[in-house]
Write a structure and sequence with these properties.
The chain is an alpha+beta fold and about 140 residues long. It has three helices and six strands, in the order βββαββααβ. The strands form two sheets. A three-stranded antiparallel beta sheet has the order 1-2-3, with no helix packed on it. The mean pLDDT is about 95.
Length: about 140
């Protein structure tokens, strides 16, 4: 896996490109001289855990023949200042699913994702408590 990151302005805006040519724009916060014209790196980390787990949950629910009409994940993280950096200490994923989806199957799929399959959550696990909420229909 390889990502290339190139600065695109005279401040902090950068473009990250993966091996397939897909792009993400990153920028710094206004407080440090950025322009808020892209995701900040820590926001990308929250997006990564939400996206990784969402893929797992959708795969599991599809295998169980659940009929998903819409699927959304809201991710919130609380950071703790450590020396010069801040770690996520608490991350909560709120899954919002509509369709003909059994609540127990969805909860089990989420638990399997976070405890077994999601590489991003497993990476964050040593420093972050990761919890979830589920809303169906």
């Amino acid at each position: 896996m390889k990502i290339s990151i190139n600065r695109t302005d005279s401040d902090f805006q950068m473009e990250a490109v993966n091996e397939d040519g897909n792009k993400i724009i990153m920028d710094g916060a206004a407080a440090i001289g950025g322009h808020n014209s892209g995701f900040r790196p820590m926001q990308l980390l929250l997006a990564a855990v939400g996206g990784c787990s969402a893929i797992d949950v959708i795969i599991i629910l599809k295998k169980q023949k659940q009929e998903i009409e819409s699927f959304e994940v809201e991710v919130e993280g609380e950071r703790e200042k450590k020396e010069e950096y801040s770690l996520f200490r608490q991350i909560c994923l709120h899954f919002k699913i509509t369709g003909k989806v059994n609540k127990e199957k969805a909860e089990r799929a989420i638990k399997l994702s976070l405890e077994k399959y999601c590489s991003v959550s497993k990476t964050l696990e040593p420093t972050s408590e990761i919890t979830f909420k589920l809303t169906i229909n």
